[in-house]
Design brief:
The protein has helices spanning 3-20, 86-89, 108-111, 205-208, 267-270, 354-357; strands at 36-41, 53-55, 60-67, 70-80, 90-96, 104-107, 122-123, 127-129, 135-137, 141-143, 146-153, 159-170, 181-189, 219-225, 228-238, 250-254, 262-263, 281-282, 286-290, 299-305, 311-313, 316-321, 332-341. With 382 residues, the chain is mainly β. It is globular and about 65 Å long. The model is unreliable at 7-24 and 372-382 (pLDDT under 50).
């Protein structure tokens, strides 16, 4: 399918799914809308053609600061930055209704699913990245009183060109009672700490027959208190060890229940792929845009959105996934979880310091990454 047809299908599917669930989403074009549409952009105020902003190291730039009631309907960015891994060094934050802590806090690349710090093409109804380094979000982001978005340069070099267009609606009426607010949270493990370092491959019986029934030491995508619904996650992996990085089961613990609501059967299964994904692919609600070779140093990126059935919680939720079967592997994970909930939200974990966010191979042992020279008779990677 051609990219233009895929995008059209994605937009149609998103509109259908969101309206079919009775949630707030794309408006019905056959009905007269009562909002007024506005745009915050990086345009040159004098009308000249230098339609961008420059952000120096350590500087925070406010790119949206508007009163409500309203909602963001679309965000577009493109960056021109010569610093390596600038997608991990530039931080995006969003604040609703005058809150002091952000409801969105993530490196800008990770927000758009580029958790390995490199650009690649992918497309979904809510997020997309073009081959031309265009970054687009269609998440609906309502606010009753106020919305503020900032971009911070935590790198060591100047961000030479930041372009943006942010479309937002000024609503004629207050938000409907019970409206939930958009949230996005970055997490990482560099590395995950696997419980074994002298295994030789994923078929090692010591790994294969291990049990993990309580989710202890899983990689956590997010935790929330209050009520709302989880709608998806993007995740990237830098392998520190040879072999398939997956086999980890997803796990959703909802409302402090003694038994998890959902437990999966493997990493590629949760992301709706199969057999180690095989090759790069991008679908409306799931995909694996980057599929690395199964050796130390390889990178992979995956995503899944629950627009068909958001996962609701009324008191709390914890979503996680194993790193390898029963948490045996010690690869690096980088993720952003997306959800809607009533404010106030649970405090986010501190954002890792800039240098700690840069993907780097870790000395963890295991196949393809021995801490010490192999001795004669030691198990060898297959």
């Amino acid at each position: 399918m051609k990219p233009t047809k895929l995008l059209a299908l994605s937009i149609f599917l998103a509109s259908y799914l969101v309206q079919a669930q009775g949630a707030e989403g794309f408006p019905d074009p056959t009905q007269q809308q009562t909002y007024t549409l506005h745009r915050s952009s990086s345009r040159e105020a004098t009308g000249a053609n230098a339609d961008y902003r420059t952000i120096t190291p350590g500087q925070t730039l406010t790119i949206l600061d508007v009163d409500g009631p309203g909602r963001l309907s679309h965000i577009w960015f493109t960056l021109n930055d010569s610093e390596s891994y600038h997608l991990k060094r530039i931080v995006l934050r969003m604040y609703w209704d005058g809150e002091s802590t952000p409801s969105v806090e993530t490196p800008i690349g990770d927000f758009f699913g580029l958790g390995a710090g490199e650009y690649y093409f992918w497309s979904s109804p809510v997020l997309s990245v073009g081959n031309d380094r265009s970054l687009n979000s269609y998440f609906q982001m309502p606010y009753a009183k106020h919305a503020r978005i900032t971009v911070t340069n935590e790198g060591k070099q100047t961000l030479g060109n930041l372009y943006w267009n942010i479309d937002y609606r000024q609503e004629a009426k207050p938000l409907p009672p019970g409206t939930l607010y958009f949230h996005a949270q970055y997490r990482q493990a560099q590395p995950n700490h696997g419980w074994i370092s002298d295994w030789y491959d994923n078929g090692d019986p010591r790994v294969n027959f291990r049990r993990n029934l309580d989710g202890k030491d899983n990689y956590i995508w997010f935790e929330a208190k209050g009520h709302g619904q989880f709608i998806g996650v993007t995740m990237s992996v830098l392998q520190n060890q040879d072999g398939w990085w997956g086999e980890g089961n997803d796990r959703f613990e909802v409302d402090d229940g003694a038994v998890p609501t959902i437990v999966g059967t493997g990493s590629e299964d949760y992301f709706l792929g199969a057999w180690n994904f095989g090759s790069p692919q991008s679908f409306p609600l799931h995909g694996s845009p980057v599929v690395g070779h199964e050796v130390a140093g390889s990178r992979s990126s995956v995503y899944r959105f629950h627009l068909d059935s958001p996962i609701p919680f009324t008191k709390s939720m914890k979503a996680s996934i194993e790193h390898g079967h029963a948490n045996a592997r010690s690869d690096n994970f980088y993720s952003v979880a997306y959800w809607y909930q009533a404010e106030p939200h649970m405090p986010f974990p501190p954002l890792p310091e800039m240098s700690e966010r840069i993907p780097a191979l870790q000395a963890v042992g295991g196949p393809g990454n021995a801490k010490q020279p192999q001795k004669e008779g030691d198990p060898q990677p297959r």
